[in-house]
Amino acid sequence: MTDDQPSAPARRGPSRPVRRLATRALLGSAAAAAILTVLVGSHSGNAAYLGGPKSLEPTDQTSLAALPPAPPTDAAPTAQPAPVESTVTLPSGGTLMGLLLDAGLVRGEAHEAIIAFSEVYDPRRLRAGQAFTITTLAEDGPDAAPRLTGFSFEPETGLTVKTWRDGDGFTADAEKAPLVTATRRAGGRIDSSLYVAATRAGVPPGVLAQLIRTYSYDVDFQRDIQRGDAFSVMYTEKTTEDGRRVADGDVLFASLTLSGATFNLYRYEDSDGIVSYFDEHGHSLQKGLMRTPIDGARLSSSYGMRKHPILGYSKMHTGVDFAAPTGTPIYAAGSGTIDFAGRKGGYGNYIRIRHGGEYATAYAHMSRFAKGMGTGTRVKQGQVIGYVGTTGRSTGPHLHYEILVNGKHTNPLKVRMPSGRKLTGTEMARFEAQRTQADRLYASLPHDTEMASRVE
C-alpha cells in the first residue's frame, strides 16, 4: 500500500443513535419477559395461557420478589352476638310481665310479646311453678337492654306455647307434640292391697281405677284379697315421643289370682262398637250393679244390726259404709234414672237410682252432687253422680251405700247381682279371635316394658 492510496477507514462501533435504539430494545425485551413470567406464574406455569411458547425462563427474578402481595379476596365476616337462653320459674303471685322485666327487657317490647301470647293462651291461667324459657340477643352498648327473640313454656305435658319475634312484631302459637300409643304390661304379688301392689308396679292411677271398677262386680276388695295373691295387667297409654305420659289408655287384659283361683278379663268391642269386658268364656264381667261404687275406699261398717255411733243404741244398718277422703268420686252402680236427689234427714245429701224392674240403689252423706244430677236424670253405670262427704248424721267422710230389691234393703256384699251379657254365634267367634291376639301380645311383652307404639 502506497502513501497516495487512500487508507481504509478505522472500525468503529455503532453510532450513538443506533446504540440508544438497541438499548431500548434490550430493556423492552427484559420488561416484557418479566411481565410474561408474572402472568404465566399466576396460571400454574402454563405459557400457552397467553398463546406463547410452552416454556419460558424469567429474565429478572428480583423484579418478581419486589411485587406486593395480592390483597385478600374476602373480608372476614362481622361476628354476630349469640342468642342467650335462660329458664325461669313463675313465682307465687308473679306475672309473665314480671318475668320478662326481670330478664332486663324493655317494658314496651315485653307488652307487645304478651299481647301476641294472649291470643293463644290466657295469661290468667298461668300458675306458680311453671317454667319459661326466654331467648334474647345482646344489643350494642354496655347499658343497652337485651332484645327479645322469644319465649316458650309447657302448660301441660305434650303442649308447648311459643312466642317469637316476627318482623317488627311478635307471633304466638300452641303446638301439640305427636303422641305415641304405648302398650305395657305390669304385675306382681299382692302383700297388702291391690292398690299398693299396682302402684308399686308403676300402673298409672287411671288404669288402676279402671281395673278395680271392672273387677268390682265380682270381687270384694276388702274381703277377697289375701296376702300372697297376685295380679297382672296389659294396658295402653298415651305418651310423647320422649316417653312422658300424657294420658291413660285402656285395660286390654288383666288377671287376678285370689286364693289360688284365677280370674281373667279381656277388653272386647263388639260389632256395634260397644266396649265391655268379658272372661275367657265370653261372659260379661259387667253385671247390672256394682258392689262397690267407689274406688280405693275402706269398708268401715257392714250391713246389719249395730250400735249407732251417734244415737248410742242398736239400730239396723241398712247398707254398707266406705270410708274415703272428702271429694272422692261416687259412681252410679248401674244404669237407670234418679228418682230422688236432695237433702234427706240423717242421710244428708242423698241420691236414689231406679235401675228398672226390681233393683234400686241409694247413696248418702255426699258433700255435693255432680253437675247435672237431679230427679229425673238418666245415668249410665260408672258415671260420677256425686262426691264423698259427711253431711247428715255422720262421724266422718264416707259413702253409705244401699241396694234395695223390690223395695227392701239387702246386703250389698251378698246380694245376687243381675247377670250380664253372654256372647254367642258370630260375636263369640270375633271375641275368641281378639282374645287369642291379646294373649299373644301379652306373652311377648316383658314386665312393665313398652312393646309396640305408633305415632298419632
From TrEMBL:
Domain Csd3-like second N-terminal: 185-303
The keyword Metal-binding belongs to this UniProt entry's keyword annotation: yes
A biological process term (GO) from this entry: proteolysis
Keywords: Hydrolase, Metal-binding, Metalloprotease, Protease, Zinc
Residue ranges occupied by any M23ase beta-sheet core domain in the UniProt entry: 315-412
Cellular component, GO, one term: cell envelope
Protein name: Murein DD-endopeptidase MepM and murein hydrolase activator NlpD, contain LysM domain
One Pfam family it belongs to: Peptidase_M23
Region (Disordered): 51-85
GO molecular-function term, one example from the UniProt record: metal ion binding
Domain of life, source organism: Bacteria
The keyword Hydrolase belongs to this UniProt entry's keyword annotation: yes
